[in-house]
């Protein structure tokens, strides 16, 4: 079973992402978290295989949160969801150790492609976000 954590402060977005993830033909367990602080506090307890994180969280940025999380769990796979498509931002995400970037909101196809790439040890940075 794959454990997935969605970190986003918008409940409606978390719910829609959950519905999309349920279309992936694998057994998954999904946890929703609404804040950066709660995610970092609960990281060891949650022990996720994959994290889908908003780039703009209320307490700190997604990149900052990812950096903290990866310092605690270096093998953590994180896909950042963003409305930014600037090269500088993409490079920051890569430098932080983030495995993938998705536009917000992603299409089901993009979500499936990112999931497969990252869960198989690769990366997912679509050309429109490079």
Automatic annotation (TrEMBL):
It comes from the Bacteria. The modification 4-aspartylphosphate is found at residue 54. Pfam families: Response_reg. Residues 3-119 form the Response regulatory domain. The keyword Phosphoprotein applies. Transmembrane segments: none annotated. InterPro entries: CheY-like_superfamily, EvgA-like, NreC/VraR/RcsB-like_REC, Sig_transdc_resp-reg_receiver. Keywords: Phosphoprotein. Signal peptide: none annotated. This is Response regulator transcription factor.
């Amino acid at each position: 079973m794959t454990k997935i954590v969605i970190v986003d402060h918008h409940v409606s977005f978390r719910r829609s992402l959950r519905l999309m993830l349920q279309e992936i033909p694998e057994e998954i367990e999904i946890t929703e978290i609404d804040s950066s602080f709660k995610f970092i506090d609960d990281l060891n307890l949650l022990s996720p295989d994959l994290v889908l994180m908003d780039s703009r969280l209320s307490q700190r940025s997604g990149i900052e949160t990812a950096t903290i999380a990866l310092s605690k769990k270096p093998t953590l796979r994180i896909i950042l969801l963003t409305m930014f498509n600037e090269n500088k931002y993409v490079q920051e995400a890569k430098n932080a150790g983030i495995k993938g970037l998705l536009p917000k909101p992603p299409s089901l196809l993009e979500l499936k492609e990112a999931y497969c790439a990252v869960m198989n040890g690769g990366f997912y940075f679509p050309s429109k976000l490079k």
